[in-house]
Amino acid sequence: MKQEIAKLVELDRQRTLLTHIGAVLGWDQETYLPEKGIEERSEQLSLIEGLAHEKAVDPQIGELLASAEAAAETAEDLSPEEAAYIKLTRREFDKETKLPSEFVMEYAKQASLSQAAWSQAKSANDFSLFAPHLETMIRMNKERAAYLDSGRKPYDVLLDLYEYGSTEASIAAVFSVMKKDLVALLDKIAGQPPVDDAFLHAPVSAEIQAKMSRYLMDAVGYDQKRGRLDTTAHPFTTTLGRDDVRITTRYVENYFPSSIFSTIHESGHALYEMNIDPHPDFRGTRLAEAVSMAVHESQSRMLENFVGRSRAFWEKHYPAIQAMAGEPLADVDVDRFVKAINKVERSLIRTEADEVTYGLHVIVRFELESAIMSGSLAVKDIPQAWNAKIKELLGLDVPNDRLGCLQDVHWSMGAFGYFPSYALGNLYAAQFWEVMQEQIPNLEQKISRGELGDMQQWLKVNVHSKGSLYLPGELLQKVTGKPLDPSCFARYLNKKFS
Ligand code: ZN
User: Fold this and answer.
1) Rounded CA separation 446/334 (Å)
2) For 118-161, how does the pLDDT look when each residue is reduced to its tens digit (9 = 90+)?
3) Catalytically annotated residues
């Protein structure tokens, strides 16, 4: 059986290499590709995706798996990594073999064109430029769901791709508790004196913001020799290789916190990717990939908010950022700064939302996706439905689609079912955070001295390094001793904000 596993690993590594080559093309499309290069780029991506898919459905894998599974039943020397790898490979092989190659290739091509169209539509504030592409991505995602499991609701099938085992009903149940907690806290905060954050809206040049970003990447432990920072319409992290995990950010001239918190957020994703290593024998395989998007978001949102918006973190780093900013922060002390970056206010942009209202932005998207996937919401009606949901949950009027339904990249990539990961990520983060506080003595003081080493080591050992060794729920249980418990997040927010 060891031989079969070794052969599976070898085939898997070739698939991973192709995926990473595709990531280079995708990263380039978002960062440096000239406008007219998009047509051939979409064909290049389609070809690479097709080749990676061919590798993933190689009939040899089916044969090797069958014999490894049979041998595993009686094997006594099977390691946890080997056992997990066989199960994971089975799950992924069964999934991939349900998708026809032509479909995978066409999907990659359309997703690439759709992302380019979204980017233009967003700059032009013109939903009609994006609408036909969105139509295609919705149709193709329904097709994808039908290929994978025609007996289930399409949205359930898609949610399961991002968070294994989740359904619309299970997420709705968690969100209804979360929503109640958030709204109650918002009401409490509404009675507090207003927070002045005008100085955060003073102009700070892109050059200075880039300098701040690089400083903060170092501060949180991102190894700039294993990645790089660039700018894009929507910040993201992408793994181009084991030692090449890149992040992007965006510079908003009149609101520099947008870039600094995006940079810290993406650094959180990158640290996870850089530290995955369940076992040297499984490097470059599926076992050495992140377990789920919610666990991924738990790492980025923990670094961005639990650490990056804490008083302790800025105790150490504020003087440097204050000096770089110059005039706008000259008369602002660290307490005013920390208050301002934690201002709770209903706002239009998800990525700039505070920790309390953030979950409501996710619920807006979750409810719309559900309607889109069930067929009750047509593309032409999305802008209006978006605005109505924002009014309902956040009480705001949306002045235009750029600040409304065109703000996020996800639907253009066809990532329907991704959004809940952000809110689940907050819940996971709070649960990890509680346990970490118990297990690392004086964590807050360490953070205030700029010593993040113990925290990084704890995350590496308990979460990052594990890769896909456990399912998300198993990981949570192993690390925290209990299943998902939304009350940890409510406790964290209440302690911080009231
Ligand atoms: Zn993220």
Assistant:
1) 18
2) 999 999 999 999 999 999 999 999 999 999 999 999 999 999 99
3) 266
| CA 58 – ligand 1 centroid, Å | 32
Q: Where are the alpha helices (DSSP H) in 327-419?
A: 334-341, 358-374, 382-394
Ligand 1 centroid–CA 314 distance in Å is 22
* Six token digits for residue 182: 């958030």
Tokens at 485, concatenated: 């418990």
Residues of the chain below pLDDT 50: none
Distance of CA 293 from the midpoint of ligand 1 (Å): 8
The 10s digit of each residue's pLDDT in 282-318 is: 999 999 999 999 999 999 999 999 999 999 999 999 9
The pLDDT, as a whole number, for residue 46 is 95
Question: pLDDT tens, 15-73?
Answer: 999 999 999 999 999 999 999 999 999 999 999 999 999 999 999 999 999 999 999 99
Distance 422 CA to ligand 1 centre (A): 7
Burial class (CB in 10 A: 0-12, 13-18, 19+), 312: middle
Q: How far is the CA of 70 from the centre of ligand 1 (A)?
A: 39
Report the candidate in 350, 366, 344 with the shortest Cα–Cα distance to residue 494: 344
> How many A from CA of 266 to the centre of ligand 1?
6
Contact 262, 249 (CB under 8 A): yes
- Give the CA radius of gyration of the chain: 23
Task: Please state, in angstroms and rounded to a whole number, the distance separating the CA atoms of residues 298 and 449.
Answer: 24
Nearest by Cα to 9 from 289, 279, 283, 242: 283
**Nearest-angstrom CA–CA distance, 14 and 7:** 11
Angle between helices 38-56 and 80-97 (to 10 degrees): 120
Structure tokens that stand for 106 in this block? 């066409």
Domains for the chain: give ranges and CATH numbers: 2-151 (no CATH), 168-497 (1.10.1370.30)
What is the pTM (predicted TM-score) of this model? 0.94
CA angle 482, 486, 491 (to 5 degrees): 105
Q: Can you tell me the distance from the alpha carbon of 83 to that of 73, in angstroms, rounded to the nearest whole number?
A: 10
